[in-house]
Specification:
By secondary structure, this protein is an alpha+beta fold. The chain folds into 2 domains: 2-159 and 364-379, Diaminopimelate Epimerase, Chain A, domain 1, CATH 3.10.310.10; 183-357, Diaminopimelate Epimerase, Chain A, domain 1, CATH 3.10.310.10. The protein has helices at residues 27-38, 95-107, 220-224, 227-243, 250-256, 303-313, 319-323, and strands at residues 2-10, 13-19, 60-66, 74-81, 88-89, 117-124, 129-138, 141-142, 160-165, 183-187, 191-200, 202-208, 262-267, 272-273, 279-280, 287-293, 296-297, 331-335, 338-348, 353-362, 364-373. Helix 4 crosses helix 5 (250-256). The two termini are 14 Å apart. The relative contact order is 0.16. The model has no long low-confidence stretch (mean pLDDT 95).
Length: 381
C-alpha cells in the first residue's frame, strides 16, 4: 500500500501529515499502516524500518480532514506513535504539530491564502478544542522565511502565532480535574509530596524540582540517565492520571496512556545553562521548568505544556503560581533549550477558574512530500 504524505516540522517536533481521505477507513487497518510507516514497534527503539526519528518528538502523525461540518476550515487529529509498542496514542494533542496544521492547510489548497497573514481555524479532534493559526503567507503559499528564533530549533524562520480558544478541560473536561489547586501523592522513599494538576490544551501534573531531590540545574541527559529517577517521575505521572480520572489504575496509565497527563518539573527562576551552552539568567524567566515526554525529558518545551503552565501560573495556589516570578502580562518559561514567551487569559467566574485563551509562537517548515510505502503483508489485522 502506498499513500501520499508530507513531512512537516512544527515547532520542535516533526510529523507525517496525511489527508484523512487517503487513509484506510477501518481504524485497525489505519493504525497498522501508521505503525508500519513509522517503523513501530521496534524493540531497539530506533524505528530503523520506518520514517520515525527514534524519539518521541519525531514519532508523530497528523491527519487532516474537511472542517465544514464543524464550522472550521479543517479538522486535525494527532497521533503519538510509540517507539516500542504497537500503539498510536490519541488521548491528547500536540501543540508543536498543531503549529504545522495551518501551513499544511494553506499549501495543500484547503484554505485560500490572504497575504501577508492567513488565519486558519481548525478543530483538534483529540480534545474537541478550536485553535486559530496566524500563518505568514506570500504569493498564496505559506512563507517560512523570517527572523523569529525558536529555542530548540536552529536558525530563524517566520513566526506562526497560535491561539488556543477556551483550552481548559481539553482531556478531562475540567481546568482543575480534581477540583483542587494542590493534591498530595505518596512516593516510596520520598513520602508525601504536593502536586498540581491543570488541564489546559493538555493535562499536566506539576511537581517541584526539590521534591524529587533535584536542583533545577539538571540537563536532560542527566535525568534520562537515571533509571531510579525516571521511575519516581513515572510514579508521580501515573498516580496523577488516576487522580485526574484519565485512567483507572497506575498500571493502565503506564501501559496505555504514556502521553497524558504530561509531567513538568517547576521551580523559581534560577541561572542555568541551556542545551546550546548559553547561560540563561534568572531574571530572564518567570519560572524554571522541564517537561517529560513519553518517559524521557523533552529537549525544549511542548506548546500544549506551555499553555497549561501559563494558565496554571494565573491560578492562585497552584505550584506554578507559587514559584513563578511576577510578570507584566507575558509569562516566560525557562526550559532546557532556552526561553519561551506565552500569554494566557484566565479568570474566576465566581464558581471556578476559567481559561478563556492562551497564545504562543512557533515556526514551521514543509520538509518533504511523496508516497509512504508499506508492504501489504505488514497490514494484517
Amino acid at each position: 500500500m502506498h499513500i501520499p504524505a508530507v513531512v512537516m516540522r512544527g515547532g520542535t517536533s516533526k510529523a507525517l501529515f496525511f489527508h484523512e481521505k487517503d487513509l484506510p477507513v477501518d481504524p485497525a487497518l489505519r493504525d497498522a499502516f501508521i505503525l508500519a510507516a513509522m517503523g513501530s514497534p521496534d524493540p531497539y527503539r530506533r524505528q530503523i524500518d520506518g520514517l520515525g526519528g527514534a524519539v518521541s518528538t519525531t514519532s508523530k502523525v497528523a491527519i487532516i480532514g474537511d472542517g465544514t461540518a464543524y464550522g472550521v476550515d479543517v479538522t486535525y487529529e494527532f497521533g503519538q506513535v510509540s517507539l516500542d509498542q504497537p500503539l498510536v496514542d490519541r488521548r491528547s494533542n500536540c501543540g508543536n504539530i498543531s503549529s504545522a496544521v495551518g501551513p499544511f492547510a494553506v499549501d495543500e489548497g484547503l484554505v485560500e491564502a490572504t497575504d501577508p497573514v492567513t488565519l486558519v481555524r481548525f478543530l483538534n479532534l483529540n480534545t474537541n478544542k478550536v485553535i486559530v493559526a496566524h500563518v505568514p503567507t506570500r504569493n498564496g503559499r505559506f512563507d517560512p522565511i523570517g527572523d523569529f528564533e525558536l529555542a530548540g530549533v536552529p536558525g530563524r524562520a517566520s513566526r506562526v502565532q497560535m491561539d488556543f480558544v477556551s483550552p481548559g478541560g481539553a482531556v478531562t473536561g475540567r481546568l482543575l480535574p480534581t477540583g483542587s489547586v494542590v493534591d498530595e501523592l505518596t512516593l516510596p522513599g520520598l513520602g508525601t509530596i504536593p502536586v498540581s494538576i491543570v488541564d489546559a490544551a493538555n493535562p499536566l501534573v506539576f511537581v517541584r524540582w526539590e521534591d524529587l531531590g533535584l536542583t533545577g540545574l539538571e540537563v536532560p541527559a542527566q535525568v534520562d540517565a537515571d533509571p531510579a529517577l525516571l521511575a519516581r517521575i513515572e510514579s508521580v505521572r501515573a498516580q496523577a492520571s488516576v487522580l485526574a480520572g484519565i485512567t483507572a489504575t497506575v498500571e493502565e496509565a503506564t501501559r496505555e496512556a504514556p502521553s497524558v497527563p504530561k509531567l513538568s518539573l517547576v521551580g523559581a527562576p534560577r541561572e542555568y545553562v541551556a542545551t546550546n551552552g548559553l547561560t540563561v539568567r534568572a531574571e530572564e524567566s518567570s519560572v524554571r521548568a522541564m517537561m517529560m515526554s513519553m518517559g524521557r525529558v523533552h529537549n525544549s518545551y511542548p506548546l500544549t505544556g506551555a499553555i497549561a503552565t501559563a494558565v496554571a501560573a494565573n491560578v492562585p495556589g497552584t505550584l506554578v503560581h507559587d514559584v513563578a516570578s511576577p510578570d507584566d502580562g507575558e509569562f516566560v518559561i525557562g526550559h532546557p533549550a532556552g526561553l519561551l514567551v506565552m500569554t494566557a487569559d484566565v479568570e474566576h467566574d465566581g464558581t471556578e477558574w476559567r481559561a478563556n485563551s492562551a497564545s504562543g509562537f512557533r515556526t514551521s517548515r514543509r520538509l518533504m512530500e511523496g508516497q509512504v510505502l508499506v508492504p501489504d503483508e505488514r497490514l494484517a489485522v
